[in-house]
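Hi R.,

As promised on Friday, here is the backbone we talked about, encoded as structure tokens. Could you run it through your design pipeline when you get a chance and send me back a sequence?
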């Protein structure tokens, strides 16, 4: 009688231990699944899916601090391309310079007004001249604020009889401003100056 009782007690203890281990394992597994699900939700909240030509593209969200150098270079590139890319059409010139002057302070306006007073833009229209700018590089010093920069570019002036290639080097400072439709990056160029703008070569057409 007693050995049977002891066997029943041992079996009951083993079943209880197995049940506790099973419950603990289930709780751990559920906790792990919930944790992984929360991590996946957090990761997906930083993604935006954009539908482009029937394809789903993923846009990743990030803090602005991670993107400041990229946005700063693009702001400088956009300003220079708008300021120096011109065609012999008054409306095109006005539109490009209007866009550029939103991205910089009075230092850029002074350069623009100096060129306008000298008849530079009238000469482009009268001479059927087109001007294109290719940015070679933009160097930033992220250790300082406002952010100092230097822009290296090549300027091509296309005349009816010649093609002039010029070197262009400018510098200035970049400070933060509020983002807007006219200034999507939220920067403003200050103390902008042209350091070099000499002819590299002249080719006949």
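Update: got your reply. Pasting your designed sequence below so it's all in one thread:
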């Amino acid at each position: 009688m007693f050995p049977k009782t002891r066997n029943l007690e041992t079996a009951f203890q083993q079943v209880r231990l197995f049940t506790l281990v099973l419950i603990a394992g289930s709780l751990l597994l559920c906790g792990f699944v919930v944790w992984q699900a929360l991590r996946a939700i957090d990761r997906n909240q930083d993604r935006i899916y954009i539908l482009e030509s029937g394809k789903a593209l993923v846009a990743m969200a990030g803090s602005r601090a991670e993107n400041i150098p990229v946005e700063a270079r693009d702001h400088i590139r956009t300003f220079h391309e708008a300021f120096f890319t011109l065609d012999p059409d008054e409306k095109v010139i006005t539109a490009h310079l209007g866009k550029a002057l939103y991205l910089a302070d009075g230092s850029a306006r002074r350069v623009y007004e100096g060129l306008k007073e000298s008849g530079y833009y009238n000469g482009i229209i009268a001479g059927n001249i087109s001007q294109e700018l290719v940015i070679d590089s933009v160097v930033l010093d992220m250790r300082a604020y406002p952010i100092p920069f230097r822009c290296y570019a090549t300027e091509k002036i296309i005349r009816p009889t010649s093609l002039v290639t010029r070197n262009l080097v400018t510098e200035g400072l970049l400070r933060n401003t509020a983002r807007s439709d006219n200034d999507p990056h939220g920067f403003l160029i200050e103390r902008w100056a042209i350091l070099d703008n000499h002819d590299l070569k002249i080719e006949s057409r």
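One thing I noticed while checking it: The mean pLDDT is 83.

Thanks again,
M.
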